[in-house]
Design a protein that fits this description.
This protein has 170 residues and is an alpha+beta fold. The chain is 17% helix and 29% strand. The chain has four helices and eight strands; from the N terminus they run E-H-E-E-E-E-H-E-E-H-E-H. Strands 1, 2, 3, 4, 5, 6, 7 and 8 form an eight-stranded mixed sheet that branches. The longest helix has 8 residues. 35% of the residues are buried.
């Protein structure tokens, strides 16, 4: 059976994703972490983000792209999009993106490279070696979402330490 053809029952799983950082003070009022299109925000003071869909069906839905998307691990996101950080010079603008770990819950549709989930919360921000972020430090972002800062290579250890299920290891 293809994993794309079924929905797992509720249960927390780990995933990796990328966000665009709030790039204006107005955007920051909603939260630091935004979708790459800057149309959806991971709100401050809201622990669990709920996926939305105008389709009126349970989320995530078969045959629909709704849900909170994540990759199974940091290696897959790098394989699909390359390393987050291209070579940069000090004179360049502050970096606008950050990657990290989410814990997903509710209905989850697994796929080969990742999954889509009904609910998620930020569990960790990846330390990538760049401190010059748009309007914030990683410490401020982690404090805002009450999460850890970890190195991508510590993802396996982080998940094991916190007992977070990994679909790519099942």
């Amino acid at each position: 059976m293809k994993t794309d053809d079924y929905i797992l029952p509720a249960g927390r799983v780990a995933g990796v994703r990328s966000w665009r950082l709030a790039n204006t003070l107005w955007a920051k009022l909603g939260g630091w972490l935004w979708s790459h299109a800057m149309t959806d925000c991971w709100r401050k003071n809201v622990e669990w983000k709920a996926a939305e869909c105008p389709g009126g069906h349970p989320i995530p839905g078969e045959g629909c792209s709704c849900g909170i998307w994540a990759f199974h691990n940091p290696h897959i996101i790098d394989e699909q999009f390359g390393p987050l950080l291209p070579p940069r010079t000090v004179e360049e603008e502050p970096f606008q993106h950050v990657r990290g770990v989410i814990i997903a819950d509710g209905n989850i549709i697994p796929a080969t490279l990742g999954f889509r989930a009904q609910y998620a919360k930020v569990a960790a921000i990846f330390e990538d070696g760049y401190d010059a972020l748009a309007l914030a430090t990683k410490e401020e972002i982690a404090g805002h979402y009450h999460c850890d800062i970890i190195a991508p290579e510590d993802y396996d250890t982080f998940c094991a330490k916190h007992g977070i299920r990994r679909l790519d290891l099942e």
